[in-house]
Here is the input.
Amino acid sequence: MSARVGVVLFPGSNCEHDAIEAVEALGGKADIVWHGATTLGDVDAVLLPGGFAHGDYLRPGAIARFSPVMEAVRRFAGDAGPVVGICNGFQVLTEAGLLPGALQKNSGLKFMCTTVEVRVESVRSTLTSAASVGDILRIPINHFEGNYTCDPATLARLRSDECVVLRYVDNPNGSIDDIAGICNTAGNVVGLMPHPERASDPLLGSGDGLVLLRSLLNSGGVRR
Here is the structure.
C-alpha cells in the first residue's frame, strides 16, 4: 500500500504543491494538512514544506511553532513517525524544539537561490536510508536564513550520534560544520535547507532529490 504523506500548510507556505507532485511522482499519496488542524488524519509521514510561514514575522518558524497542528506533529514524531522539514520547515522544527540548534541569516547577509552539492553523511535517518554514505547530490537552495548554528556541546552530540545527515560540499551560507541537514537521535525527524522536491525531475535540472523523497516514502511504508 502506498505511503500517505501529510503536507502541512501554514499561511505563507509556497512549496506544498511542489512537494505533493514529487511525492506522487514516486507513487506515494499526499494530502494538505491545514496548520489549524488538531490531528494529522491517516498519514504515514509528515512533511513541512518551504515558504514563509506566517510571513516569517519575529523570525522564521517562531510563530508557526504555535500552530495547533504542531502538537499533532509532536505526538506523531514521539510515536516514531517520519517527519521532514524542508527549508522553512526545518526552521519550524528547530523553533518547535523537535530538532536542536537554530537557523540564522546567511553569512554575507544575502538571499541565496542556486543549486549546490551536498554529501550524504549518514543513512540512519528517515530521509537518507535509501542513499549511500558519500553520495553527492545536486539540489537547489532558496533561503536567506539557512545558516545552521548550535553550541559546541550540541555539535559534538550531532557528530557522535551520526545526526548530521547532509553536508555542503562547498558551504554557501556559513553553516557550522558545513551542515545542510540534521536528524534527531532516533533518526525519524529530519530538517534540511536544500529542496529535494525541486530536484525530482532530471529534465528540469536534477533528479538527485528523488533518493531522499524515496527514503521518506519507504519509512512511511514501513510504518503503515
Observations:
- The first strand starts at residue 4 and ends at 9.
- Residues 4-223 form a domain with the Rossmann fold fold (CATH 3.40.50.880).
- The two ends are 8 Å apart (CA to CA).
